[in-house]
Structure formats: C-alpha cells, structure tokens
Specification:
single chain; 335 residues; alpha+beta; Alpha-Beta Plaits; 2 domains; 6-stranded mixed sheet; 6 strands
C-alpha cells in the first residue's frame, strides 16, 4: 500500500497548537498560570459546596501543569492539587456535621485523589514527550542528527525575519571525494564521514546558528554576524576548521564551500539566496575543489537577477583570520 501521511484529527491539531504556545512561555509564566488555575478551582469548590463536584477541573489543572512543566514538576504540582482538594473537602465536612465521614473514608478519598491526579500527570507528560520526540524526528536528518532541509528553510525564514539590520553568512558545503570513499571503503565509512563532518560543524558554530544536511554530501549553514565586513574572516575560519577536521580522518575527503554574505533584507527570497550560495560552491567545484568562494549581493539589483552577485574574493584555500569575532566557537575536536 502507498505510504501516505496520516490525517490529523481536530484533537491532534489542538495539541500541536498548544505545544507551540506553551513552549514559548517562560517557566515562571507556566507556574503562574498553573497556580492561578488551581487557586480558581479551589475557590469555586469551596464556594459551591459538596453537592457539585469539581474533579474534572482539578484533573484539567493537573493536566495543564504536566503538559507545560513536564513529568517531575507536574507530579509536584499534582501533589498540590490533591492536597488542596482534600483540605477543601475536609473543611466542608467540618461545616456540615450531617455529612459525617470517617477518618478512614477521608484517607481513602485523599489517596484516590492523589492517584487519579498522578495518573493524569504521567499520561499527559508522556504524550507531550512523545509529541516533542516526533517533532524532533520530523525536523532532523536521521543519519547525522542535524537539521533536515525542510526544517532549515523554516528556521532560516524565522531567523531572517527577526534579523532586522543584522547580517548573515549563508554557507553551502559539499564534500569532495565522498563518492570515492563510498566506493572504496563502503557506505559505512561514508556515513561515518558525514556524521563526523556534521558533528564538527555543530561544534564550530554557535548554538543559535543553523546547520543542516540537505541531501547526500551537501550541507548548509546560516551564521549571524555583527556586520557584513566580518563575513570574509568568519567564513574563512569555518572553512579552515572543517577542512582540518576532514584532513585528520586520513581519507581523501575535502570541503568545497560557497559563502553568501548579505543583510537580512538582502536574503529575500530565501530560495534564491540558497541557490546563489550553491552557485558559489559549484564554482569552487569547477575550479579545483577544496576551497572557498565568497560573494555578496549587489545592493543595486534584486536577488533573483542573473547578475545580482558580486564576487568579493577569488577562490582561496584559506583567508587571513581576524580573532575576536565572537561568532565561531573553540574547536573542541582539535585535541
């Protein structure tokens, strides 16, 4: 049978939307909303008396806390929910002697309340964790663990949208000699090279920058920089570090890289920007490989124009680097 995408139900859409909303909240906000919800339920329960049950609202408050705070903190909040409900019910019984309940019955009700709340917390937090895992899998390249193509484009659009007056380096990388390694040493060796390169790149760039495998032995990265003038040095440092990692493998694999330096406004449309970075990398491949070519967008022309690219440098294997840029992390794999 054909492999089709499962249809999302209304509940699934609501849960996905809720996940996106609560993830944006700070822990203090999550705790505040949860505590206010619990206080509201306790107040309503105390006012309305014993004839109306608020069990559903107690469970709803516990479920929200588990969804927002996770299992551990959700269980702690569940303990507050169970204790609060037990105390309210105890004082209601004291105010109505005709509703006599034995101590054993109260203890059993308190235990049942705690177990019910805990079960809801475990189920909701487990469902939340499963949803996060599936969202991570959907956005991640299965072999290397970095972003996949679709997720990179999505996150790149968000980064550029909030970039303001900032600048970026859009890097397009291809591994030279990768096919030869696959043919001579097998696909397991090729896979190991891809994982090594991806892990090295993640170590080299900062946590807020983006790095993705977009297919085969091709990778892309989006680095934010303070000013376009810093782009040449940073792009050169990235290429030098990654080339050094590949050289230490002892295999005939090198890195060809194209780097497009532009402001946030110059990267629109994003697809055209990626194609320009790809064209810079392709020029490296045509000219001998294992090098870097840097280009900038001509501010007088649109990004989709055929001649909108200004080549700033010739192809070089390395560029004199200026320290203190604050963009590239320490090479934790150099030792």
């Amino acid at each position: 049978m054909p492999h089709r995408q499962p249809e999302l139900t209304l509940t699934s859409r609501l849960l996905i939307r809720a996940a996106g909303t609560t993830e944006a909240w700070r822990p203090l906000t999550q705790w505040t909303v949860a505590l206010v919800s619990l206080a509201t339920v306790l107040l309503l329960d105390a006012i309305m008396g014993t004839q109306i049950t608020f069990a559903f609202l107690y469970l709803l408050a516990a479920g929200f806390a588990a969804w927002s705070l996770g299992e551990r903190q959700g269980l702690l909040f569940g303990l507050l929910v169970a204790a609060g409900g037990t105390i309210v019910r105890h004082f209601q019984y004291l105010g109505h002697p005709e509703l006599f309940v034995t101590v054993a019955a109260e203890a059993w009700n308190a235990l049942a309340r705690l177990l019910s709340v805990s079960l809801v917390v475990v189920l909701v937090s487990g469902m939340r964790a499963a949803l996060r895992l599936e969202r991570w899998r959907a956005s991640t390249d299965g072999l290397t663990g970095v972003l996949n193509k679709a997720s990179f484009h999505q996150k790149m659009a968000a980064a550029v949208a909030r970039g303001g007056d900032g600048a970026f380096i859009l890097c397009y990388m291809d591994l030279d000699g990768f096919k030869l390694v696959n043919d001579r040493h097998g696909h397991s060796a090729g896979d190991e090279i891809l994982r090594l390169f991806a892990n090295a790149a993640v170590d080299v760039i900062r946590g807020q920058d983006l790095f993705a495998r977009i297919g085969g032995d091709e990778f892309v990265a989006l680095l934010s920089i303070h000013a376009p003038e810093d782009g040449d040095h940073i792009a050169g440092l990235v290429h030098e570090r990654l080339s050094g990692i590949l050289a230490r493998t002892g295999l005939p694999v090198t890195c060809s890289m194209g780097a497009l330096i532009a402001t946030a406004s110059q990267l629109e449309p994003l697809e055209a920007a990626v194609r320009l970075a790809d064209s810079l990398m392709y020029e490296v491949k045509q000219g001998g490989k294992a090098a870097l070519r840097i280009g900038r967008v001509d501010p007088r022309k649109t990004l989709v124009a055929p001649d909108c690219l200004q080549i700033q440098t010739d192809m070089v294997a390395s560029i004199p680097l200026r320290k203190g840029t604050g963009v590239i992390g320490d090479d934790r794999r150099a030792a």
